[in-house]
Design brief:
Elements: E1 5-7, H1 11-18, E2 30-33, E3 38-44, E4 51-58, E5 76-78, H2 89-94, E6 96-101, E7 103-109, E8 118-125, E9 131-141, E10 147-157, E11 168-170, H3 178-182, H4 189-195, E12 204-209
Parallel strand pairs: 4-10, 5-10
Antiparallel strand pairs: 1-2, 1-7, 3-4, 3-6, 6-9, 7-8, 8-12, 9-10, 10-11
Length: 242
Amino acid sequence: MCGRYFQHRSSGEIARYARAVNAPPNLVPSFNRAPTQDGLVLRRHPETGARHLDALRWGLIPRWADDPSIGSRMMNARSESIAEKPSFRDAFVKRRAIAFADGFYEWQRLGEGPKAPKQAFAVAMADGAPMPLAALWEGWRGKDGDIIRSYTIITTNAAPELSPLHDRMPVILPPEDWDEWLGETPAEPARLQALLQPFPRAGLTVWPVSSRVNKVAEDDAALLERDPLAQPPPGLDDPPPW
C-alpha cells in the first residue's frame, strides 16, 4: 500500500532527472502528499511521444465514473490485477506513467488488534535519488466539460526484509525500465507485468518518523526527521539519505 508520500525536490529538478521536454508544472513540494492532492507524473505524450511531466490528481478516476469522488478510493492499483480490473485495464495498455516522489510513508502496527498503536516510517532511495513509482493515468470528463487527469500508484508484495513494516509496497521502477513502461520501447503485457517487482531492501533506506505525519494538515520538512523515541525492529532503522 502507498497512502502518503513526500516530494521535497522542485518540479524543475524532477523534470531534468526524468528528461521531460515540457515546461515543468508549478507544483509546490510536499512533505505529506495525500490522495486527492496533485502529484508529479511523467507521461508519454499521446501525439508526439515525448516525455511530459505534469501535475495530476492522486486517485484514478475511471472514464466511465459518474462521480469523480471515486478517485479517493483508487489511490493504489494492485499489480496482480491491473490487466483485468475494469478500472485499470485500459490504462495499463495505453496510459502507463511514473509518479515521482522522494520517498513514501508506511505504518507498522505495534501489537495485536485494530486499536494497537502504529509507528510511522519514511522510506527513500538509499542513494538519495528521486523515487520513480509505477503508475497509471486517466482523463475523466465531467458533464460540464471539465477534464480531470488523475493517477494511481501500482503496488506489489513487499520485499521480504520490508514485510515486518507492511506486506505491500509501491513498485519502484529503475531508470533502465522506463522506456518499456512508458511505451517508448514496445513490450508485451507479460514483459510489463514482469517489471512490477518488489524493490530490494538494499536499495532503500528506512527510518522511523514522528506520528505528526498521521495528520494530512502537517506538511513541513521536520516530518522527515528521525523519531528518537521509536524502537523499530532490527533492519528497519537507517539514517535518512540526505
